Each structure stands twice: as C-alpha cells, then as structure tokens.
C-alpha cells in the first residue's frame, strides 16, 4: 500500500507525465527507517499548482514535500486495517476509498457516472429531494478533527486533561501532526492533490455520517465525498434533515454550502440533456463524410458549451473525439478545431495534449507553426496570471513536438514561481529550444528554504538534472542529499504516456495508414478505455466557486473527481493519459 501511495498518490494528477515519484517510492520501500527518518519532525511548505477548471474557476492543488508525505502515508499504511474498519461503518457513504494496485492512482472510489442510476433507483416513492454539500471542504478541515472523528470529540478532550481521564490510540494525533508538517504546521486545511487527503477527509465524512444517522437512522440517499443527496416523503422531513446536517457539520467546524443547497419536488429535477446529444453523435469511418462530421461536431459542441458555461462540455466532447480515428486527410481540419478549442477552454489543454501526442506518434503531419503560435499565446496569457497548469502543459506539448520558445515567452515563464514550469523551461533550454533563462527565482528559493521550502521540486531537480547548481549545495545535510546520491529523480522526460489508440500488433502502421486513407475497419484499431464522464481533476468541490452539479436524476456528466486530483474513479481515470509507461 505504501508503494502505491508514494508512487501514484503524491503529485496532483494534472501535472505532465514527465513528473514522477516512482524512483522515490522504490527508494523509500527498499531502505531502512533510519535512512528515511532524518528530519522527521521538520515542517515543510507546499507549492501551489493552480489548475484550470471550467469557466474562470481554478482548483488550488499543491505539490507537497515527499519526505514528510512519506511519514503520513506510512502511518496510513501501518494502520490500514483500523482505517478500513472505521470507514466501513457508514451506511450512506458512496466515496469510501478502495486501495488498488493496478490503476494510475493509489486509491479508487465509485465512478461518478453510476450516481445518476443510483439516484434514479432510490428515488421512487419519494416526493422531495434534498441536495447540499460542504462549503470549502478540504481547505476548511481542522486537522485536530481527525482525532475527533476516530475517537469522539469528548474523548479527545478528556485524553488531554491533566491527568488524562481516558486513553486513546495515537493514530489520530499522528495523522494530524504529519498532515500539518506538509503545510507549515497549519491546522486548517488538507492539501488538495495527494491521495492521502481523500482518505483523511473520508474519515471525517464517515464520522459525520454516523452522527447524522443517529437522528435519521433510515435515511434514503447517500453522501459522495462532500455532496449529500437524500429523498423524503414530505418537505418537513427534508428541512429537518438539512438542519441536522448543518448541526453535524458545525460540530466539526464545517458549514454547508448555501449556494448549492436546495430542497426540490421530484417534478423539478433536471438532467443534462446536452450529454445525450453529444453521446449520440457519430463520427464516420469514411474520410469524406468524417470531415463534415468533424466540422458539425465542433460547431455543435462549442455552441452547447456557450449555453452551459458551468459544465465541462468541451472536455466531454474531446473524450468523444478521442475514441475515433481521424483520417490523415482530415487531420488539418481536426487539428485547427483542437487549437481553437484550447484557446477558448484552457481546461481542455490536457486532453488536447493527449490527442496531439498520440497522432504525432502515429506519424501525422502536425502543423508545428500553428501549435507553436497557439501554445505560446496560451503562455503569454496565463503565465502573468500564475495559471500553472496551462503554462506547464503548453510547455510539455512544445517539448514533445520540439518547438522553440521565443525569448519574450521565456521571460514571462521565468517570473513564475512554479517548479513544473521552470523545470520544463530548463529542459527546453538544455535541448537548445529556448535561448533565454533567468535563474533568479531558483537562486532565491535555493538560498531561503532549500529542499524544504515550497519549491523543493525545482531546487532539487535543477541540481540533479544539471540545470542549475548554486555554489553552496542546498541539499547538504538533508534527506535530499541522500536522494541525490542514490540518483533519485522526480523529473524524467523519457517517461511517455499511453497512446489513445494503437493498431493491432499484426498490422504494420506505415502501410496500414496508406492503405486506409478513405475508410477503415474499426476492428483494426484498439482504443484506450476512456471514462464516460470528463472531469477537471479530483477533489472537485473544495472551493466555493465550484461549478454547480446537476441535481437531477440523470447526471452523466457529473463533474466530481474531487479534486479527484487524482484518485482513480474505479476503472476510470482523471487524466486521458492513464498509467504512464
């Protein structure tokens, strides 16, 4: 379990595939505790990694320090049985994590696409539905409340008396302490990004479920991460339940999100009809008709997106396109639409990157002039705003396609205090694709906090990769010096993502594409399994500006992922890349 949490559950899922913790996970698992335990109690700063979401909202994910993260996940791993036993007590949670070994993240929860069917199946016979969620769930969690959840608030207070009136196990306190060490010893907020946060949040969620069920033992409905959906025979019962939820949350110093709270008659339940329209659209496997289909589909999708500004329409649409083969003769039209989409909807950049990478691998003629113009325009717009995911993914695309970065763009990137962005720019600089680089930010971060500051990733990797080495080694005397000596890397551009599709092994690609320029047999092409819903990342509802979820019975486009910044949603994955090779 600890291997998976370190290897697949540390970085936010929205980082480019060249950022990896596999070496680190292997090192920690193979080495003895004395080597790992150096600086165990040292507080660290997490680096902000701002991720694009639908519309103008952002997801504030973070890159936590790997050394302190090790101690947290070791505690979770060592106490797995106790944690799983506690989580199993809830009768209403549909987001209890499953620890997995064969997915791209370390834990998995129920796919959001199953919630629509679940709501439909449990709603008959009830006239009213209550929908609410927790405001600012992850950022608002009081870390001391982890112990309250596991052992009860009164028992925790009694254990702190002098002399202690009760004795409680150390698990809650340890989880609290190690979590605070990831975030400058702050007691408010769980970091959005690492998988450990979902486990800790679910512990608190289950504790609140148990309190709620004391007042409503026969509740019909469920909680999914921070969302509640319950059904009632009359309006008064729904109001009473809402009051009970508010009271339970207050006991954990949390609040309901008033904007997303509603009690509705079943006649007023809505559904996302646009998903049905896009799902039923077909893309021809004959070249001439496919071109018309491409033009029609993009125009229709962009129109639907304009009328559903708070929904992930374009990510959903790109998923649809990613499951069909585009003919080489139609590539220029398809590519032009992709680049148009990503300028309008930058949260779709990860999906566009996946498509460009796949078709470049298969020998399609990528218009590097257009891609360069688009990616550099994205960087010019988003770098000054501190929009890290847009800049990082634009740079990753530029690096994959070996496109040059002009000096004015490089200067903007050098002002951004972002490890992923600076490391990708340094990589391009080393490859001769970027002439300008200013190391002022790196120099400052190396001097101030070294490998335990917010930009530990850039400070460490710049030295290990040979990008930048200050006179005084900031790693000296730290755990990271040991990592350097063992050649542990967190940045490896040779790591490639999965392709969206591949030809059957018996087929020779070059001759096949030539022979099938007008039509093809679908059985010749094997596509990666892409989830029906498309979401931005994982702990979806951690910030108050989250886009509204549909409260209907049919929610095929549920946009959760709970900043599902990562966690795999069962067989599904937040990133179209899936497991990185």
Explain how this protein is built.
The protein has 581 residues and is of the alpha+beta class. It has 25 helices and ten strands. The protein has helices at 2-8, 22-30, 33-36, 66-78, 80-87, 113-122, 137-140, 145-151, 153-159, 171-181, 195-215, 235-251, 273-279, 287-307, 313-322, 331-344, 349-361, 368-382, 388-400, 407-414, 419-430, 440-448, 456-464, 479-485, 509-515, and strands at 47-52, 58-63, 98-99, 107-108, 128-133, 221-224, 227-232, 262-265, 501-503, 525-527. Strands 6-7-5-8 form a four-stranded antiparallel β-sheet, covered by helices on one side. A hairpin with a 7-residue loop joins β3 and β4. α17 (349-361) packs parallel to α19 (388-400) and α19 packs parallel to α21. The protein is globular, with a radius of gyration of 25 Å. Residues 532-565 and 568-581 have low confidence and may be disordered.
In short:
This protein is an alpha+beta fold. It contains 25 helices and 10 strands. The longest helix is centred in the middle third of the chain and has 21 residues, at 195-215.
**Relative helix content:** 40-55%
Total beta strand runs: 10
* Class from helix and strand fractions: alpha+beta
What is the CA-CA span between the terminal residues?
20 Å
Main beta-sheet annotation = 4 strands, antiparallel
Segments where pLDDT lies below 50 for 5+ residues? 532-565, 568-581
Radius of gyration: 25 Å
Strand content: 5-15%
Count of DSSP-assigned helices: 25
Cross-sheet strand order for the largest sheet: 6-7-5-8
Average of the residue pLDDT scores: 86
Overall geometry comes to globular
């Amino acid at each position: 379990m600890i291997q998976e949490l370190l290897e697949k559950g540390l970085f936010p899922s929205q980082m480019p595939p060249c950022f990896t913790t596999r070496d680190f996970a292997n090192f920690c698992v193979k080495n003895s505790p004395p080597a790992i335990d150096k600086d165990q109690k040292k507080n660290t700063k997490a680096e902000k990694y701002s991720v694009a979401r639908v519309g103008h909202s952002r997801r504030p994910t973070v890159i936590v320090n790997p050394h302190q993260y090790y101690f947290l996940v070791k505690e979770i791993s060592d106490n797995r049985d106790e944690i799983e036993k506690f989580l199993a007590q809830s009768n209403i949670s549909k987001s209890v994590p499953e620890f997995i070994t064969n997915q791209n993240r370390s834990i998995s929860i129920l796919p959001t696409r199953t919630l629509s069917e679940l709501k439909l199946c449990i709603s008959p016979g009830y006239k009213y539905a209550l929908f609410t969620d927790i405001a600012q769930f992850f950022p608002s969690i009081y870390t001391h409340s982890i112990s309250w959840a596991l052992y009860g608030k009164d028992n925790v207070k009694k254990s702190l008396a002098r002399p202690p009136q009760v004795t409680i196990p150390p698990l809650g306190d340890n989880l609290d302490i190690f979590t605070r060490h990831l975030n400058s010893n702050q007691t408010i907020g769980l970091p959005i990004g690492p998988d450990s946060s979902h486990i800790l949040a679910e512990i608190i969620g289950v504790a609140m479920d148990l309190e709620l069920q004391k007042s409503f033992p026969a509740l019909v409905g469920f909680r999914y991460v921070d969302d509640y959906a319950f059904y009632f025979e009359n309006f008064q019962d729904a109001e009473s339940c809402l009051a009970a939820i508010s009271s339970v949350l207050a006991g954990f110093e949390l609040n309901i999100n008033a904007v997303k709270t509603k009690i509705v008659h079943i006649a007023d339940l809505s559904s996302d009809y646009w998903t049905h329209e896009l799902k039923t659209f077909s893309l021809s496997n004959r070249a001439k008709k496919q071109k018309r289909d491409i033009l029609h589909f993009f125009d229709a999708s962009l129109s639907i997106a304009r009328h559903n500004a708070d929904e992930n329409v374009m990510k959903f649409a790109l998923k649809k396109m990613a499951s069909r083969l585009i003919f080489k003769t139609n590539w220029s039209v398809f590519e032009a639409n992709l680049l148009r989409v990503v300028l309008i909807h930058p949260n779709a950049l990860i999906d566009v990157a996946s498509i460009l990478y796949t078709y470049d691998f298969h020998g399609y003629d990528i218009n590097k002039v257009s891609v360069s113009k688009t990616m550099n325009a994205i960087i010019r717009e988003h770098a000054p705003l501190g929009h890290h995911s847009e800049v990082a993914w634009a740079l990753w695309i530029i690096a994959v396609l070996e496109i040059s970065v002009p000096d004015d763009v490089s200067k903007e990137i050098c002002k951004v205090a972002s490890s992923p962005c600076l490391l990708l720019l340094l990589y391009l600089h080393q490859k001769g694709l970027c002439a300008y680089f200013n190391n002022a930010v790196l120099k400052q971060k190396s001097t101030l906090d070294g490998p335990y500051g917010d930009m530990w990733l850039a400070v460490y990797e710049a030295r290990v990769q040979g990008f930048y080495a200050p006179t005084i080694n900031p790693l000296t005397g730290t755990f990271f010096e040991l990592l350097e000596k063992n050649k542990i890397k967190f940045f490896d551009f040779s790591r490639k993502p999965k392709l969206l599709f591949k030809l059957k092994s018996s087929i020779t690609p070059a001759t096949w594409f030539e022979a099938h320029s007008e039509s093809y047999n679908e059985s010749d092409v094997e596509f990666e399994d892409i989830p029906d819903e498309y979401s931005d990342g994982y702990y979806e509802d951690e910030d108050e500006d989250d886009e509204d979820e549909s409260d209907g019975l049919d929610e095929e486009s549920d946009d959760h992922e709970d900043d599902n910044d990562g966690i795999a949603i069962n067989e599904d994955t937040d990133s179209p890349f899936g497991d990185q090779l």
